[in-house]
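Chain A, query sequence.
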Amino acid sequence: MEISLLTLLIVLPLIGAIVTLFMGGERQKYAKYVAAAFSAITLVIALLVMFNDDMAGLATSFTWIETSSITISFSLMVDGLSILMVFLTALLSLLVVIFSAEEEDRPNYFHTLVLAMEVGLMGVYLAADYFLFYVMWELTLIPMYFMISWYGGPRRHYAAIKFFIYTHVASLVMLIGIFAMAFEVGSVIGHVDFSFATINTMMPAMSDSFQVLVFALLFFGFAVKMPAVPFHTWLPDAHTEAPTGGSVLLAGVMLKMGSYGIIRVCVEALPAGLDYWQWVIIAIAILSIIYGAYGCIAQSDLKKMVAFSSISHMGMVMLGIGCGTEAGIMFAIFQMFAHGLITGILFMVCGMTGHKVGTREIPLLGGLAGKMPIYATFMMIGFMASLGLPGLIGFWGEFPLIFAFYDFIQAQDLLWMILFCLLSLMLTAGYYLWAMQRTLFGPETTKIDLTHAHDVSKTEGIALAVLVVLVAFFGVWPDAALSFIEPYTSSLILGVI
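Chain A, predicted structure.
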């Protein structure tokens, strides 16, 4: 049987995870090379898929379970919604392996967990069957749990358990919604088929009351993963305690599972539910944006500050989705991609602060730019990209979303609501500039010993430089990413909303 490119995106990191898992003893030191090789090949395949002239033709499917009453398939597909997430997953997995090349604590297990995360994430973004989608969704929880629990900070066990309980309970609620859709469609066609094609095509014809109820179940499961306020409390703890590589994957691609699910399932399959809950989604989005920004100001730990900023920026994604317009959804997808690249930089430099300086506490830092100039440069670029500086990718992620929201509320005669967006912009600039001033500039701190602090290593520099180049490239030429997204959003609006 011929193995498709999409299947390889899942199979290759799976093989790599198995190989590194058994590289114990003296062979542990070679695990990073094996992980790098498998993740690099996966990235190459992701690029081949990305620039394939017929992405729809790459779809593959074979029957997994089939009885007289139910069909479950191992079905994979890629389109304008998922392709940037597939690329981002492959890229960040490789960069985490490179960045963590100096990991000495059971390096074979660490790289096994990274590759296992890549398997689950690829499965979520490529799945074309709801059963497979849920299996892969749950699969991502296991390696992230062990990554936090084994390689995290002092409160790692508490953070790992909290992460698992929150996200697993939300997944179970989501599963109820998936079963409800599958069996409702099955009652119509006389056969339960979990494929996206069958369910997403037939669900818009179901009763509005059914769509409204199922939308709420699914939205809850996805919103916890994003995470949206008030379901966010697991995220700051998980990020603070997770190792740097875990934080990069968690913020860069795992959080996007939530927004991806809202668009792929809630928006595509349940248009009546979106119409009913639209203002609730917008209210939760605005609450997340403002609360996340205020939370950043209150933090003294650099990594926790960036964790709260993720809540705020993912709130912007939800705001775009809540608008339900082509521009809103298109730039929500773009912001997912932009946030993944930017948080890769931010969590890498925050992790380096703790490892090289000995603390991430902002009041204890100061003058690091003179001691570690390359590190300071990467931090400044990451902060400026995240606050939306023109010329960097963050600008094209945030400001078009604000315009889409402005266009939406103008039609509703509610222009005063734009003040929430303006407030978030001011708060974002405030906490980033404040943190940068306190950490990098001014007199060199005397509160901690910087004698042994050293600048960015070669492998760390390579990983950060790749992300900085992409942040600048897409900041200057955003259409390089939007060209993948626009055909999807155009067909979505014409066919669903």
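The first helix runs from residue 5 to 21. The chain has 21 helices and three strands.
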